Amino acid sequence: MAARIHVGAGAATALSTFNSKKLVAPPSRTNLPARSSKRYIVAAAGSDGSKKSLLRVRHSQKLIANAAVATKAETSATTGTGHELLLFEALQEGLEEEMDRDPHVCVMGEDVGHYGGSYKVTKGLADKFGDLRVLDTPICENAFTGMGIGAAMTGLRPVIEGMNMGFLLLAFNQISNNCGMLHYTSGGQFTIPVVIRGPGGVGRQLGAEHSQRLESYFQSIPGIQMVACSTPYNAKGLMKAAIRSENPVILFEHVLLYNLKEKIPDEEYICNLEEAEMVRPGEHITILTYSRMRYHVMQAAKTLVNKGYDPEVIDIRSLKPFDLHTIGNSVKKTHRVLIVEECMRTGGIGASLTAAINENFHDYLDAPVMCLSSQDVPTPYAGTLEEWTVVQPAQIVTAVEQLCQ
Amino acid sequence: MATAFSATLPLHGSQENRLLLPPTRLAPPPPSSSFLGSTRSLPIRSLNHAHASRRSPVFAVQEVVKDKKKPTNSLLITKEEGLVLYEDMILGRSFEDMCAQMYYRGKMFGFVHLYNGQEAVSTGFIKLLTQSDSVVSTYRDHVHALSKGVSARAVMSELFGKVTGCCRGQGGSMHMFSKEHNVLGGFAFIGEGIPVATGAAFTSKYKREVLKQDCEDVTVAFFGDGTCNNGQFYECLNMAALYKLPIIFVVENNLWAIGMSHLRSTSDPEIWKKGPAFGMPGVHVDGMDVLKVREVAKEAVGRARRGEGPTLVECETYRFRGHSLADPDELRDAAEKAKYAARDPITALKKYLVENKLANEGELKSIEKKIDELVEEAVEFADASPQPGRSQLLENVFADPKGFGIGPDGRYRCEDPKFTEGTAQV
């Protein structure tokens, strides 16, 4: 039974579209009149009418202080309940809830079982669910990804972990040919409800091969969806949504975000796979970002606000397909777009997003779309060099100043 | 851990089954034969030579007399079984012959790989399976699909690219799928189906051990000699043995990978030996003899059903046509082709049935006629079927079409009428 959870399409219209069961007066923002900063959406009932969940489209209205990856606990748990946890624990919670809910959900990957996962996302699950449901595979990405796909075709719902997303380069044959295509080439006969997840992105001097951004390589594969989580809230929500989806979903986590702490609701919730997340509404410029760069953007936003700018920050979350509604509404409002991503300049998510915005919203732009990406460089080991390959907050500030001239 | 495979009554004189049990029960290996590493182009002679010099002791559960006198009540099949096997092989052969005709008449396009000559392997294995058992194949998959139960109409329509094809015309020759008959494809790249087969076997085990269901389903993975040099093959042998999955790996060793001779590309051409290296029995069988294949298959499938784990079966077989209909087939020696043509599995079974009084010529002829009509009817059906409409273009990309995302107007793209018309830009 898949409860259909409907989230308002486009954060701006949320309140008017849906009746809220619970509305709490949100703290108002200093710059903007009468705009509520929190949106509560009650989900429609599941298809069997049984379940109503309270969903919150969350964003942080507060600018994230200090370090690019640190975050304070959110103050938005307005019901007063909720529990605080780290991002990897949120992933684990989501996974465990789905495994409890549906015995067909299983996990496979290297060191997911007895070791508890190299980033502890599957900690404790093998003890609870057994060695077959949380399968420690040998080191054979192509084969175990294919095994997951075969299992999905025959009725299971595997969550396949790449210990590092970069390792999934070895599974490219299976992901491209089988994961993406088999539903189509079989004329719709077989579904492949797999979730492929793992940490990627540039870490702390992990070296070139462990610092890859595979979203740019996978984005052309037809038939798959890609999402990137960035907060404990959306990590759990996206994990659950991905597992429940009948489509193959690739969930990108980031090595540096696993220890983010946030308070998340006690009640069950999922995040919509196809929607973007409004992080900070604004008027002057739209900044589109995802994953770790969200925090660099928010740090830059702090500086920008002090300089008198009002950036609108959207975490696109859905890397494929793009949520052109949220993005479009924002572009129509601000007329300026800056994309901040961690992918390489060439052929990254930013490149595709630039093309999509130009194609769809050209008339609304007052300036060319600017895209800040990582350098087309194998990520160096040396700390200084590594820092220069990735977009830093200062560059974001400069770019905004440039665009808003 | 391995069970012994009993030797069977040969259809072709003194051909023997090659059986290999795990190393602990073997005598010391005999000196290697001269063909290993050679580039001689007549592998048949070399293989026979290899057979003679590499005799391993076989621990047989029941010894069967290997001479030409057959004890009266130790026939391998009943009449009904014999006719089923014959019909299935005739279906495979006629269908593939018709495919060639249709291709040259411009009814089907692209890469079409025909199975002529290898029917004994498909029939020998698949006719032992139930509907819920799974079969995974490669691009040479028409006959596997037919043996498993997919109708000739559905396969022919698929080849013609019509909506009535088993995959709605979207897959083509190399992607035969059937949910109803558990045919899990049809894969264009060699080796990529083996992990999928391993996954299907994993599901069987999962159903038994986690979901506590009564599940005895096995999976049979078919692939060729070329695939046996590919990493995915070895990775899956390892996992299948490790997790004791109910899977049978069937190597259809037809000695050629397009124009690459197996002997030129493989350091140790005896593929069955690779099974015990991973902890599963490796069996070599004469793949031109459907009864031998069937006997080995019975044992392998039985092992899998009992939860004893996987088996690697190497079938020595041959394709009478080129690699595909586009292959001029110039590299293979005429003498080699003639030798194998003389071992045509259909002729051999016919001879066996008639000689053992299981069927007469008339009955067999009527089967052939019936199949001819079936295949003709399949062509007519495919011809008359409509081609896919524009609206089908975007339909099966996602199981949940919300995967196309939210458009600028706020609606899911799949709700856009242009989407269902197939004209939407996604």
From TrEMBL, chain A:
Query: What cofactor is needed?
Result: thiamine diphosphate
Q: Give one Pfam family, short name only.
A: Transket_pyr
Where can this protein be found?
Answer: Plastid, Chloroplast
Query: What's one GO-annotated cellular component?
Result: chloroplast
Which CDD domains does the UniProt entry name for this protein? Answer: TPP_PYR_E1-PDHc-beta_like
**Where does the Transketolase-like pyrimidine-binding domain start and stop, copy by copy?**
85-260
Read off the InterPro entries from this record.
Answer: THDP-binding, Transketo_C/PFOR_II, Transketolase-like_Pyr-bd, Transketolase_C
Asked if the record carries the keyword Plastid, the reply is: yes
Q: Keywords of this protein's UniProt record, alphabetized?
A: Chloroplast, Metal-binding, Oxidoreductase, Plastid, Potassium, Pyruvate, Thiamine pyrophosphate, Transit peptide
Which GO MF terms are attached to this record? metal ion binding; pyruvate dehydrogenase (acetyl-transferring) activity
Catalytic reaction annotation:
N(6)-[(R)-lipoyl]-L-lysyl-[protein] + pyruvate + H(+) = N(6)-[(R)-S(8)-acetyldihydrolipoyl]-L-lysyl-[protein] + CO2
Q: What EC number is given for this enzyme?
A: 1.2.4.1
Quaternary structure note:
Tetramer of 2 alpha and 2 beta subunits.
Q: Which PANTHER family match?
A: PYRUVATE DEHYDROGENASE E1 COMPONENT BETA SUBUNIT, PYRUVATE DEHYDROGENASE E1 COMPONENT SUBUNIT BETA
Q: What does this protein do?
A: The pyruvate dehydrogenase complex catalyzes the overall conversion of pyruvate to acetyl-CoA and CO(2). It contains multiple copies of three enzymatic components: pyruvate dehydrogenase (E1), dihydrolipoamide acetyltransferase (E2) and lipoamide dehydrogenase (E3).
Q: What is this protein called?
A: pyruvate dehydrogenase (acetyl-transferring)
List the source organism. Raphanus sativus
Tell me the name of the encoding gene.
LOC108828936
UniProtKB/TrEMBL annotation, chain B:
Gene Ontology BP, a term:
pyruvate decarboxylation to acetyl-CoA
- Residues passing through the membrane, by range: none
Q: Enzyme class, one word?
A: oxidoreductase
Query: Where do the Dehydrogenase E1 component domain residues begin and end?
Result: 88-388
Sorted keywords for this record are: Coiled coil, Oxidoreductase, Pyruvate, Thiamine pyrophosphate
A Pfam cross-reference name: E1_dh
Q: Which CDD domains match?
A: TPP_E1_PDC_ADC_BCADC
Q: Which cofactor does it need?
A: thiamine diphosphate
Q: Which reaction does it catalyse?
A: N(6)-[(R)-lipoyl]-L-lysyl-[protein] + pyruvate + H(+) = N(6)-[(R)-S(8)-acetyldihydrolipoyl]-L-lysyl-[protein] + CO2
Xref: NCBIfam families? PDH_E1_alph_y
**What's this chain's function?**
The pyruvate dehydrogenase complex catalyzes the overall conversion of pyruvate to acetyl-CoA and CO(2). It contains multiple copies of three enzymatic components: pyruvate dehydrogenase (E1), dihydrolipoamide acetyltransferase (E2) and lipoamide dehydrogenase (E3).
Assembly notes: Tetramer of 2 alpha and 2 beta subunits.
Query: By what name is this protein known?
Result: Pyruvate dehydrogenase E1 component subunit alpha
